Each structure stands twice: as structure tokens, then as C-alpha cells.
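Late entry, protoporphyrin IX containing FE complex.
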Amino acid sequence: MNAITRCLDTYWSSSIGKKLIVAITGLVLVLFLGGHMTGNLLVFMGQEAFNDYAQLLHHLLHGAGIWIARIGLLVAVALHIAATIALTRQNKAARKAYEYQATIQASKSSRIMIWTGLTILAFVIYHLLHFTVRAGNEYNNPALYTDLAYKAATGDYRQNAWKMVIDGFSVWYVVLFYIVAMTMLCSHLSHGVGAIFQTLGLRSKKSASAIDLISKGYAAVIWIGFVSIPIAILCGYGR
Ligand code: HEM
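Prediction complete; structure with ligand written out below:
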């Protein structure tokens, strides 16, 4: 075992090492969500603004940008889940005697972190198949999803991502699933953001209530921002 592997092994074996991995990867995902939500809200600025944004994402660094982001997100999600599982096992083994007390003191959102986390994972898999892989739908069909205004102006093809989102959320049960998943995400964030501050040593008795407020406020903004899109579309926006 060389020095780097030994160092990583020691880090992974310690409880604080794993907590830091959960916190740092959690922070990456929290920042991604803020960016993704802000970008998605461009759907309300109309077809041209949203398609310009989608095109920009796909062409950043000559197409390498989106792959760097995808790999970064995948690594963050994998480490977040692996460290959480390892930490839960370690804690269960070490704290059997305190389990009852810890459970009754914890808030509801912190007790259901595992379930909200698993729902988010299931949602992300569905979401990637829906809008990125575009499996089981026609969103990759140029006859149906070409941005015609862009083609008329430039002569080039680009996908009509705006129409894809409008059509994607024109089905009530898809919208319902998104709303349920966003609600789980909101619950996960309302505990998770505060836990990041705690692990990074940024939460004191004095700042605790402000951090709780930031945590719940951020979760609420993310919920409103994300669910506003499918709800508006189901109510007729863009159709
Ligand atoms: C109403 C809510 C949402 C909308 C309208 C939306 C929209 C989209 C769209 C259109 C894409 C495809 C981008 C492209 O390839 O052109 C996408 C990709 C993605 N979304 Fe969302 N999204 C929403 C919520 C979420 C949430 C809550 C998460 C995470 C929990 C998420 C995670 C992702 C990821 C990881 C990708 C893959 C990026 C890529 O590799 O292309 N999305 N989303």
C-alpha cells in the first residue's frame, strides 16, 4: 500500500472523514440544484431563451463542459451515497445503546433522510431517462423537435428543448411524480443544508437558528422554483 492509498484508507475509516465526504459532495449537489433550477426557470422566458441556454450547456468548452459536469456529478452522487451507507453502518454498530434517545430527539426530516434520499435517486434515474437519454419518447426525433425559428434564422439544426419540457409536463401523472419527488428533495435539503454547516464546523449555538432558517429557506426556494414549471405547464403554459 503506498502513502496515498494509506492516507485515503485512514480518511475513509474515520467517522469524521466520511462525514466530510458527505458534506462536501452534498454541497456540490446543493449548488448544482440552485444552478439547474435557475436555468430551468428560463422556460418562462420563452422558447428562444430556453433553447439558447440548452445549446450553451451542450457547447461549453466545445462539448467537453457538459461531460466534465456529468462526471463530476456522478462522482459526487456515488461518494455521497457510499459514505452515507458506511457512516450509517458504523454509527449503528457503535451507538446501539443510544439509538432510542437519538431517534426521539431527531427532527422528522432528519429521521427520513434515507427514504427521501432513495426517492431522489429513483427520481434522478427516471429524470435522466426522460430528458437526457430520452427513452420511450420522441424527443430525439428531428421531425417533431427541431427549433424551427432557429433553423429559419441560421439554417442550422438545434433541438427544441423548450417543446420537450412542455410536452414532458403535459401528462398529469408525470407532473404528480415530479411534485412528490421535489417534495422529498425539499425535505432532504431542509435537514441536509444545515448538516453541511454543522460538519464543516460553521454552526454554533449562536448561529444555529439562522442556519436552520437558511436551510429551510433554501429548500423552500428550490421546491417552489422546480414545481412551478410542471404545474404551470399542466395548467396550460406553453401549450
Ligand atoms: C421541474 C424540474 C426540472 C426540470 C424542468 C428539469 C429539466 C431538465 C432538462 C431539460 C434536462 C436535460 C438537459 C439536456 O440534456 O438538454 C435535465 C437534466 C438533468 N437534470 Fe433536471 N430538471 C428538473 C429537476 C431536476 C432535479 C430536481 C434534479 C436533481 C435532483 C435534476 C437533475 C438533473 C440531472 C443530473 C440532469 C443531467 C444533466 C445532463 O447530464 O445532461 N433535475 N433536467
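DSSP finds eleven helices and no strands in the chain. Will revisit in the morning.
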